[in-house]
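Late entry, iron/sulfur cluster complex.
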Amino acid sequence: MFYGSGVLRGMLVTLKNMIQSYFCKPEDGGLFTSQYPEKRLPEKERFRNFPFLIYDKEPENLRCVACDICAKECPPKCIYIIRDFDTDGKPLKKPKIFDIDLTVCMNCGICEEACPFDAIYMDHEFEISGRERQGSLLYHKDDLLKSNEHFHKIRPTDAAAIDTRRQEDEAKKQAVKKEPPKPPSTAS
Ligand code: SF4
Ligand code: SF4
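Prediction complete; structure with ligand written out below:
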């Protein structure tokens, strides 16, 4: 080893990569950068960008029960929820308004972790720029709704595990409902 050999070896690697970039495809160790937007590399399953609200089969079956936990846990407080009510003023287990200001969201994923109802998950979508300065990134409930099929498409491992757990929980609930009521205790 002589003085500066590390620098020289580094320069050789750079030179090798530069030459390879002209002759090899990326998959053969050539150009490292993807020619976006013409080419998009597939996102990793756990890649996360902004949240979405999940529904089962139809949008009216959204899982969110408007409990407000995610809004309370969101560090920059960019989730805004108002519960829905029926015509008699009885509170319903669904949000009337569910807004997320994506200009403030910091992609932390805490809403997903905090939600006890498997109702909000981080999406892969990142091409959401708009032309308006104000408002175009204030997403309302309808903008945030996406199906469980979408979740399966972007995060198949998590989606399958969550579906299994939800089915098991539902089966347990049904079993408890079917259990005959216990006879009253005769102990004095
Ligand atoms: S997304 Fe989850 S945590 Fe947030 S309000 Fe809906 S049910 Fe509650
Ligand atoms: S990802 Fe983080 S910042 Fe964005 S809405 Fe969820 S909790 Fe808030």
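The longest strand covers residues 91-101. Will revisit in the morning.
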